[in-house]
Every structure is written in C-alpha cells, then in structure tokens.
Write a structure and sequence with these properties.
- There is one protein chain.
- It is built from 46 helices and 22 strands.
- The chain is α/β, with parallel strands linked by helices and 1321 residues long.
- Helix 4 packs across helix 35.
- The chain is elongated.
Length: 1321
C-alpha cells in the first residue's frame, strides 16, 4: 500500500511555552495560512507521539488481554469498563482540579457583585474608603471573569483530548479484532454493525469525558450556593431551590422521551435510507419498468411517518429549550414572591446576588449533571456492545508453509472431510485428494459448495471430521472480485516490491495491458471505493493479477472467468492459468465447461458430495450426471487425437492450442493482448463543493419552503416580544428595588410618627405586574419556540419531497456520472441535518443572538457611554469571526474528508477478509488503519478541538473586556446611576461569558449546516426527462403486433457525449426472435437505451406505427418487458416484487412462478408470497433472481420482450430453463436478445451484428456464417473448436427447419418494407 500521506509539519504544541499553551498562541501560524488560502492535508501538524493510534491501541490491548486471561482464571466475564478506567484514570483525575477552580469562581463572583452594588445603595460621595473598596470588588469581578475564560477552555480541551485517546485506542482494538474474526463470528455480526461500532459507539467516549467530573462538582456547588443564598435572603431560597430540583427530573424526563422518539425515528430513517438505496441503485430498472409511482408512494409513506415522529421530537426539543430559557425566570419569580410575602423588603444587591447565584448553579444542575448521568449510561451500553464484539470467536491461525529443510512438493490433501457453516451440514467427502504440482484441477458445480471447499482449504471454514493437510503457501482469487481503495498498482503488488519484468508479464497475462493504456494515469490510477472506477471485468482481472503476482505454492482460483467475456476468458485461461502458472498446482472452480478438457483432474460436486472425479475422458466414459452438463460440448465430433493426448499433463496445453490453431492461427502472446477489446472507463464527476459564504437568498428559500410570508412575519414579531418580556421582567425587579430604596431613604420620618401605612409600596400592584411579566415571558417563549420548530421541520419535509421527485424524474445519465454514495449522502446525511440538527441549532442561535442584543441594550441604557468602546470591540469581533471561520471551515472539511478513509478502509477490509488472510496481510492493513486513524483523530480532529478552543478563549477574552468596561464605567459615573440599574447591567454582562462564544459558534454551525440545505436545493433543480404522460395517448391495446422500426436513429447518452449509435436503420418484424451481438462497446446496450428513451435518441423509432418520441414515457415503457442484465429485487414482499401495482390475481402470480419453476422455492418461504425479502433479495441466488425477473416479464404479457443477457454468472441449467420459457411463453412476441454467449441466440430468426454503433450485418445466423470475414464468424471461432462446430450445426438445423418465406423478402425486402410502411403512414 502506498504511504497514506507525506511528512506533516511537527506539532508546535509539544514545544510551546506556558503562556502559549494557555492561550493557544502556537496555532497562530496555522490561522495565518488558513486566512490566505485553503488548508490542505499537508498543512496539518504531525500527530503527537502520545496520541498515536498504534501506541494507544497496543497499550489498551495489552491491559485487555491481561484482563481476559485473569477473568478466565477467576471464571467471571471480563470487564472492559474496568480496563478503560485502569488505563485512563490518572490523567483524567488531575483535570478535576480545573473543574473545581472554575466552579468555585462561579460561586464567588456573585458575592463580589453584591458588594459592589451595596456601595451604590449606600452611596456617599465623601466616603473615599468605600470607593477604594468598591474598586477592589470591581477588579474582583473582572479578574474572576478572566480566570474563568482561561480555565474553562483549558479544561475542555484536555478532557476532549482524553476522550479522543480512549476512542482511538478502542477503534484500534475493534479493527484488530475484525481482522481475525472466524466465519461463525462473522455470521453473528455484520459489516454495518462493525462500522456502527466505529462510527457511533466509540464517539460516546468523546462525549462522556466532558461531563463526567460534574457528577461530584455539581452537588458540591449546589450546596455552596444554597449556603450563600441562605445568608443573603434566608429561608425563601428554599422555594427557588425546590423549583430547580423539580426542573431537573422534568428535563431528564424530556431527555428520556426524546431518546425514545429518536430511536423510533432512527428505525424509520434506516428504513427510508434502505428504500432510497434500492431506488437509486435500481433506478435503471425502475425507469424501464415504469415503476416510479409505487416507489415514490413507498418512500413518501415512510417519510410521512418519519416526519411525524420528528415533529413530535422537535416539539419536545422546543419545550425543552423554552423551559430552559424561562427556568431562571420562574426560579427568581418564586423566590422573590415568597420573600416579599414573608414581609421582607426587597433591595437591589439582594435581587442581583440571588439572580447571579441562581444562574451560576442553574447550568451545572439542569444541564451538566443530568448530561453526565445520561452520557454515562449511554457509554455503559456502548462499552457493553464493544465488549460483546471483542469477545467473539477468532479464527484459528493454521500454519501452511514448509520448514526450511524439507524441500517437498506443495500439495493439498483432503480425506473424508465434513465441514459446517453454522452447523448446517455441508459435507465434502472425497475419498482422497492429492494435488501434485503442475496439476490443473477443476471443480464444477453449484457455486456455494465449491466456495465452501476453497474456504476450508484456506482455513476459513472449520472442519469437523476428516483430514485436511495443506503444504505450501496459498494464494487466492475470490469469486466476488475485491479491490481496496488505492492505485491499481498497489492492488496488484499487495505489499510485494515491484519487479518491472515480472509485473509486465503478469499484466499481459491478465489482459490488463490495454486497459492500463486507456486509463488516465495508467496503473497509478486511483480506484475509488469498492473499485468504483473499474468495470466488473477489469476488477476480476486485477483480482486475478494480484493472486498471480504473489509467489505462492498453491493457487486457489474461485471462478475468475465468469465476469469476463469469452474472448478475454480464453486469453486468461491460456496465457495466465495455463501460461504463467503452468508449473504450479492450481485449483480452479468454474462454470465454463469449455475449459474442462485442459484439466488433469475434474471433481464434480453436488450438494456437498463428490459425484465424480477423474480426467475429462474418464468422466465422459463413466457417463455421470456430468455429461448432462456437457451435452452441448459433445455435439461436435471429437477431435481424433485430443483425448489420448490430454492424458499427459505436459503435452496437454499444446494439444489445446493446436486445436484452436486449426481455425485461427494462434497469435503470438504479444499481439494477443493488443487485439483484445478495451473497456471504456467511466470517470466520476468531481463533487461540487461550495466555497465562501452562504447568501441570504438561500435562507429565504429555506424558510419559504416551510411557511408563507405572513407566518414568517408572525414568527419574527414573536421573537422580539419574547425577548422584550424577558428583559422587562428583570428591569421591573430593579425598578421595584429602586422605589423601595427611595422609600427607605425618605420615609424615615413618617415611620417615627407611626403613620407608616400610606408610605408602603402597594404589594398587589408591583407583584401583580411582576407576575404578569413572568407569565408573558413564559407564553411568548414557548410559542416562539414551537412555531419556529414547526416551520423548520416543514421546510425539511418539503425540500425532501422536492428532491426525491426531482431525482425520480432525472434522466439515467445523472446516475451514471454521480456515484450512488453521493446521491444517498444527500438523502441520509444532508436530510438528517435538516431534520434534526439544523432546526435546533437555528432556534438556539436566534435565541442567543437576541439575548446578546438584549444585554448590550440594557448596558447602554444604564451607561450610554458604553457604546463608544463597544464599536472597536464589535469590529475586532467581526474580523475575528471571519478570520476564524475561514480556517475552521477548512479544518472541519479536513476532519470529514479524513474520516471517510477510516470507514472505507474498514469496510473494504471486511469485504476482502479472506483475501487479506490468505495473503497474510493483516499486519499491513492494521498499520494502514493506524495511519488513517492518526490522520483523522491525531491530526484533523486534534486541530478541530484546538482551533475551536483558540477562538473561544479569544471571544471570552473580549467578554471579559466588556465586563471590565461596564464595571469600572459604573464606578466612574457613580453620581448618575442607581443601584438597581447597575445591578441589572452588571449581572447581565456577566452572563455574556459563556453565552457569547456559544452563540458565535452556533452561528458558524448554522452556516455550516446551511451547506446541507444548499446541496439539497441543488438536487431539487435537476433537469428532468420527458413527461411520464402526454396529451397523445396510444390506443389501449397497442402494440398488438410488435413491429419495431428504427429510422436513422443516432444515440448518445448526453448532449456532449460520444455518439454510440450512428444513423441506424433496422426493422424487427412481429413475432421475430432477433439476437444482437457485437464486441464490448459496440452499442448493444445503447440500442435498448434508445428504445426505452433512457436518453432521447435522434431520428425516429416506430412501434406498430406509433412514433415513440411523441408519447409519454410511462405509456412507452409499460408496453415493453425487459429482463435486465443485473437482476434487481427490491426489499419488500415477493408479491410487491412481481406486481407492485397489485394489478394481478394470486392465481396469475402463482402461474407465473410455476412457469419459471420458482413455485416450489416460494412455497418453502415462511409466508409464501408475503415473505419480506432480505435487502435487495440477497437470500436468493443470482439465477433465482434472474428467474424472478423472467416471471415479471411473463406477468406483463407484452408484445415486445428485450433480454439483456446476464448469463455470465448463471449456471447452464437456469440458462436452459430461461431459454425454454422464452421460446414457449413468448412465441407470439418480438424478442430482442443481447447475447454474450452465442449458443443462446444461434437459432434466432435473424442476428444483428453491431460494430462501433453501426450495423455490420443483419441476417439469418446460417447466412452470416457463410461469410468468413464477418465479425460473427470470427466470434463463433473464438469460442473454441468444439463449441464452434456445435454452433455451426445448430445454425444449420434452425435454417433448414424454418419455413422459407418467398426469397425476395430476404435481402431487399427489409428496406422495401420500410418504404411501404412509411407511405402508409
């Protein structure tokens, strides 16, 4: 594997001094770079040694292994939590000191504030001592804000880093475990589950470490505050505390309900994404079947349920936020109501000390403490899940290979072997099987069993009884070709060093030479996820090349020839399997019977038993069931010497070649590769990523999707009303205190006279207004929250619907150039953001923004002068935000781009698990995983943490400046201000601290999330294909004959793409069976695309005289049946799969299944027709899925049937069955077959030979075969001598059995017909 990245810069935080560490100054250079240009991967700092994935992982792993052994000794289950605590408690405990300091300061600050306000209450211009004391208190308030700013962020940074370390170590262990799972364990878990462990469960460590310390700090702080309040206002404080204590469980209850909704929503979301996944991956089929409507109904139904759940959970969120917003108000209201009713008088210092103390404790008690409890329980669940995974069975490492001294021949020996995949008996009972060198040993059979045989040899399938001895190094080419993300070269070398000559030889033998020349960067082309840039055949050949390049002793090849066409297959067989590898033992599993003669030993397996073994000729004599598979081979007369020669393994390859060379002189190896057709490689369009800021227009679009203008205006008004009520409530308290103060000063005389009734403040009035304002705050607060959520969730819903409809209506071309992942990403990640995260962040941001404005307004109303220093502060702030956002956006982007390789590496490793183990590459893959981890967590995540802290420290610094200005400003203007207003201004200014930086970060978040909106909006505006129905409807029984005419049709997939069909004229007569052949890229599939108008063709296509381009797409597509190349089944019941519109009776469905011999299979399913299929029908074999597609065609009873041959990986029996059904059921139909195997179409009425998008020849097969220079004749010859003779024979038979029409109609008639037909029109 190539190194994941170049050397990064060294990490400056390791060498930074204390000041720089506290204020994160060592980041400045990075921000400077980020401001000038986009940050790239090599701008990130190298991972700190103590954060390295390998180091952390191994440390935890050793502790875990130790714990597992100890647990086994004590006969108890091992505890993962114990291991984690043991590994990380020391550094984490130290961080507790930070928390303590921070919370102590939070409690002391209000005391300073109270003393400061008292100075104003007892204000005496001449008392200088009191003034100096007041200056001291003011300095105390300011200092405490500053210290808070610093400690808070240092604490957060270090706890998050501890969390990160735990996560990285856990990931390392999970991946290591995944590489050595046994097959039984793989059955208990799925790739999805393992990816889930890595993506979700380990993230809990990041979250839990933040809050954990509050479990002991919280109660302490609450006790301290209670004590101070008791001193300040006596027993009334208990009333307020009681409210706080009641609020705690209600919030926890909200959280519970919320997570309940969340899990319900999650299930629905998974459901929707799964459906979407199928719609997008099967979009070609859906379009050709014209099934868009049932699918859109399906998705809309799921989405509707999902939205109703999301709406409920959003309302909950809204209530939760509003109650949080109003909580402090209720607490203060209750406290003072009790206080006043007990007959105490109110004073400014008391009011504001109380307010400040409550707000100090409120966050800890209502937010951090419950969060800590919640996160802790979540983490315990995650740890349990991870532990279950870590305790799954591992594979037993078997040791193949020679000891140095024994130089013996590699061999595989199997005797009386019985194996189980999860205890279902799969038996392999060869009496004795010795595999000598230079032996090609072929097994033919149904794939499942042979794969089992190979996996038992690889040691993947544990054997129960019997002997299995393997001597020598194994190498393996899997049936499903596996490639990992990287260059093609690294895929072939797979960790071996490059020997140019050998490498060239392997490329040539595997027919990859030509492909490499066509690819943009040759063999250094990057393969996308799961080999997205390569075609199936290319993947199969790379997979084979990887096995061949390894110098092993025994080669296990699992059906490597099925994915390539006949010509390439023959090349691979001769040049590679019998060429490069001719002196090595090879075990080849294959369906392709034409290669059997070359085998030294053939093993026929059926249902787990060995039916026969021996050489080709021995088996032929014994007349086993095998001959029925070989029917077609024998029809050609045996070559006289072939049988006897094929005994001796040496001359065998020669005899094969000499047979071929009769017909076409065998080309020298070198030229052989050049003439193989090259496969075009599709390049993927780069995903558009928006740069820069997001326009106002987008916000308007987003909000207008959710509600009309009037509602939006109402929402804005509500926001302001709520904020006004919020501030007025506090102001009223201050005013009340001030009035009381005046009374206390002026009213002394009247009290002495005993006439104090008149001068007391009217309690009813003041308390009444106070209660009214509190009520207003509550009502407006809740109303605006719920309304906002309603609007935003509705917006998400309407945007999703628009996007989905637009996707359904866009031409297929869109899906060819955009990989599935990208489209699905819009539906999963971006819609997920719109549903859950965005509304909440948006509302939160708006509330905080309004509160900040409120704070500034209050301060300015007390000391108007404060606006002067505010101006430079605002300017600095705006600059800082822009400066920070530029870098932060890049860091965030890097974090997400470096995250995906971690997951794709994991999932590709799981897919190629057998291959990785067969090649002994676990170590290397583990190291690559660690490198990716370091790149993600150690570098980009680390940067993400520090940059956000850098910014937050700076912002809180600015807040501290603001507090300082306010505090000293009040003292300087001491003559003009009242105690109440000072209290109001200062207590508000202090709340700015955490709130301001949180608000700014939320604003950045909103902006980042708006990119999701932007991406969704972009997909709502895709170009759409022709309408599904037009004014012009064809007659209902159309097409009654099935006559198809192409009149000068040219076709290309996009306006600027190459023309794949050029000026084509052809006519397919009613009831005619036409085969369409041609080399790769000749335009066979494009013919179908043109017929179905998957892109609009130029020229005219008539079906029964109706011009297809004039009618709606659904009218056209519903009237033609297609059996597609890759059979697609959709998740849902069997019935939905056959008949999504429910147009047919049960009887029809059963009959259709009977015709394709699937009735018995379906009857065995638990609920028969109503059985829900597994994801994309994976519980059916490929052959069976093909038959389901055939059944769909049988049901539709259309006059025109198009078969896009997919018989490459269907066994000969199914193939025969399909052919037979087509001949019987569709006798009255026009059938077009795109063939890859010539034997399926050799008896057609006519064959259309395409070459480079033009008609090369179009006639009866027999006639075509008379022309020895024709493409068709050459294609027949390439199938091998025997097959060719058989093909010629059946073409002749078909020719003779046909009733001849008058000969004139043979050649010219086709054209003549066309003319008459047009004039008739």
């Amino acid at each position: 594997m190539e190194p994941v990245k170049k050397d990064a810069k060294t990490n400056p935080s390791a060498t930074a001094n204390l000041f720089s560490q506290v204020f994160f100054c060592w980041l400045n250079p990075l921000f400077r770079i980020g401001y000038k240009r986009r940050l790239e991967e090599d701008d990130m700092y190298k991972v700190l040694p103590e954060d390295g994935s390998e180091r952390l992982g191994e440390e935890l792993q050793s502790l875990w292994d130790h714990e597992v052994q100890k647990a086994a000794k004590d006969l108890r289950p091992p505890k993962l939590a114990k291991v984690l605590i043991k590994c990380y408690w020391k550094p984490y405990a130290v961080l507790g000191i930070f928390t303590l300091i921070e919370e102590v300061i939070k409690v002391i600050q209000p005391v300073f504030l109270g003393k400061l306000i008292q100075y104003f209450e007892k204000y005496d211009p001449d008392n200088m001592d009191a003034l100096y004391e007041a200056f001291g208190y003011a300095a105390g308030v300011c200092l405490s804000t500053l210290i808070l700013a610093v400690t808070h962020h240092l604490y957060f940074f270090h706890v998050q880093r501890t969390g990160m370390k735990m996560r990285v170590a856990m990931c390392h262990m999970i991946y290591k475990k995944a590489l050595c799972l046994s097959s039984a364990a793989m059955g208990k878990t799925t790739t999805g589950q393992i990816v889930n462990l890595l993506s979700n469960d380990v993230n809990k460590f990041d979250e839990v470490t933040i809050f954990l310390h509050f479990l002991w700090v919280g109660p302490l702080q609450a006790a301290a505050v209670l004590g101070l309040l008791w001193v300040e206002i006596g027993p009334s404080c208990l009333a307020g505390m009681a409210v706080l204590v009641i609020l705690m469980p209600t919030q926890t209850m909200f959280g519970r309900l919320f997570s309940k909704f969340r899990s319900k929503t999650a299930a629905l979301t998974d459901n929707r994404i799964r459906t979407m996944n199928e719609v997008v991956s099967g979009i070609r089929i859906i379009k050709m079947y014209a099934w868009e409507k049932p699918f859109s109904a399906l998705v809309n139904e799921v989405r509707r349920k999902e939205i109703s759940k999301i709406m409920s959970s959003s309302y909950l969120r809204g209530l939760n936020m509003a109650s949080f917003f109003a909580a402090s108000k209720i607490i203060v209201f209750i406290t003072f109501t009790v206080y006043v009713l007990l007959g105490n008088t109110i004073s400014a210092s008391r009011v504001f000390v109380t307010v400040s103390l409550y707000s100090a404790v409120r966050l800890t008690v209502t937010l951090f403490f419950p969060s800590a409890v919640e996160k802790l329980s979540e983490t315990r669940i995650s740890v349990r899940r991870i532990k279950t995974f870590l305790l799954l069975d591992e594979i037993v490492k078997s040791n193949h290979g020679f000891l140095q001294e024994e130089k013996q021949e590699p061999s595989v020996e199997i005797q009386d072997l019985i194996c189980y995949w999860d205890k279902v008996n799969v038996q392999l009972l060869p009496p004795r099987l010795l595999d000598k060198p230079t032996v090609l040993f072929t097994a033919i059979t149904n794939t499942f069993i042979t794969s089992s045989l190979l996996s038992s040899i690889l040691g993947e399938l544990p054997h129960d009884k019997g002997v299995l001895k393997v001597k020598g190094q194994l190498t393996y080419a899997s049936q499903q070709p596996w490639v990992f993300p990287g260059t093609i070269r690294s895929n072939i070398l797979f960790g071996k060093e490059l020997h140019p000559q050998k490498y060239e030889k392997v490329l040539r033998a595997c027919a990859l030479k030509r492909d490499m020349e066509l690819l943009p960067d040759g063999d250094l082309t990057l393969i996308g996820d799961r080999g997205a840039t390569l075609s199936g055949g290319q993947k199969a050949r790379v997979n084979l090349a990887r096995a061949v390049y390894q110098d092993a002793d025994i080669y296990l090849l699992d059906d490597p020839l099925s994915a390539v066409d006949a010509e390439v297959g023959r090349h691979l067989f001769e040049q590679c399997i019998c060429g490069i590898l001719k002196n090595k033992p090879r075990i080849l599993v294959t369906h392709q019977l034409q290669y059997l003669q070359a085998a030294n030993q053939i093993l026929v397996l059926k249902e787990g038993h060995m039916v026969a073994r021996g050489t080709y000729s021995e088996l032929q004599r014994s007349g086993v069931d095998f001959t029925s598979l070989l029917k077609r081979e024998e029809e050609g007369p045996q070559a006289p010497g072939a049988e006897t020669e094929s005994r001796s393994p040496r001359s065998r390859t020669l005899s094969q070649n000499s047979v071929v060379s009769h017909t076409s002189s065998i080309r020298s190896v070198k030229d052989g590769t050049e003439q193989l057709p090259a496969e075009p490689v599709q390049t993927v369009v780069e995903e558009s990523r928006s740069e820069g800021t997001i326009g106002v227009g987008l916000y308007v679009k987003y909000l207008k999707a959710g509600a009309n203008i009037l509602v939006l205006i109402g929402v804005v008004l509500l926001q302001f009303l709520a904020q006004a009520a919020y501030i007025l409530q506090d102001w009223w308290l201050a005013y009340w205190a001030g009035e009381q103060e005046k009374l206390n000063v002026n009213g002394t005389v009247t009290v002495q006279n005993g006439v104090n009734v008149t001068e007391e403040l009217s309690l009813d009035l003041y308390l009444g207004i106070y209660a009214g304002l509190t009520g207003a705050t509550l009502i407006f607060g809740f109303a605006r929250s719920l309304l906002m959520f309603n609007v935003l969730v509705k917006a998400a819903q309407s945007l999703h619907n628009r996007m989905f409809n637009s996707i359904l209506r866009t031409p297929v071309r869109f899906f060819d150039i955009n990989p599935i992942g990208r489209v699905l990403n819009r539906f999963s990640k971006d819609i997920g953001q719109l549903d859950a995260a965005l509304p909440w962040t948006f509302v939160d941001f708006i509330q905080i923004f309004l509160q900040i404005i409120g704070v500034v307004a209050v301060a300015a109303s007390v000391i108007p002068w404060i606006l002067i220093p505010l101006v430079p502060l605002v300017i600095v702030f705006l600059f800082l935000r822009r400066y920070f956002l530029q870098t932060s956006r890049d860091v965030k982007r890097l974090e997400s781009t470096t995250r995906s390789p971690v997951f794709s590496h994991l999932s590709s490793s799981l897919q190629g698990l057998w291959t990785i183990r067969a090649f002994r590459a676990e170590e290397r893959f583990q190291n690559t995983f660690d490198t990716y981890q370091d790149l993600h967590s150690g570098e980009s995540w680390f940067l993400f943490l520090v940059t956000s802290r850098w910014f937050a420290v700076r912002l809180d610094g600015m807040c501290a400046v603001f507090v300082t200005i306010t505090a000293f400003g009040c003292l300087l203007l001491r003559d003009q201000v009242e105690a109440g207003s000072v209290g109001l201004a200062l207590s508000y200014a202090v709340t700015l601290m955490g709130m301001f930086q949180w608000g700014v970060r939320q604003s950045a978040e909103v902006e980042n999330m708006m990119t999701s909106v932007e991406r969704v909006v972009e997909y709502t505006e895709l170009e759409s294909e022709a309408p599904w129905e037009t004014q012009k409807r064809p007659p209902p029984e159309w097409p009654s004959q099935g006559l198809i005419t192409f009149d000068r049709v040219s076709f290309s997939y996009s306006s600027d793409g190459p023309v794949v069909l050029k000026d084509m004229k052809a006519m397919f007569r009613p009831k005619e069976k036409v085969g369409i052949v041609g080399r790769t890229g000749a335009g066979k599939s494009s013919l179908v695309s043109a017929l179905f108008r998957l892109a609009e063709p130029e020229g005219r296509i008539y079906i029964d005289g109706v011009l297809t381009s004039e009618i709606g797409l659904h009218d056209l597509r519903q009237k033609m049946s297609i059996i597609p190349q890759d059979p697609v089944l959709f998740t849902g019941t069997m019935r939905k799969n056959l008949d999504p519109f429910s147009q047919h009776t049960d009887e029809d469905l059963w009959n259709a299944l009977q015709e394709v011999q699937l009735k018995s299979v379906v009857e065995e399913l638990p609920n028969k027709m109503e059985t829900v299929l597994a994801e994309s029908g994976s519980n059916f074999s490929v052959g069976q899925r093909q038959l389901v597609c055939l059944a769909r065609a049988v049901l539709r009873k259309n006059r025109i049937l198009i078969i896009d041959e997919a018989t490459a990986n269907v066994d000969p029996r199914t193939d025969e069955l399909i052919q037979k059904t087509i001949r019987d059921k569709f006798r009255e139909c026009t059938v077009l077959t795109i063939a890859h195997r010539l034997n399926t179409i050799i008896d057609s009425d006519r064959i259309l030979v395409l070459d480079a998008g033009q008609i090369h020849a179009y006639d009866e097969p027999h006639t075509l075969l008379q022309n020895h220079d024709g493409i068709f004749f050459k294609m027949v010859q390439q199938t091998g001598r025997q097959e060719a003779v058989a093909l010629l024979q059946s073409a002749k038979q078909a020719y003779n059995s046909r009733s001849r029409p008058s000969t004139t109609n043979g050649g010219v008639g086709a054209d003549g017909n066309l003319v008459i037909f047009e004039t008739a029109l």
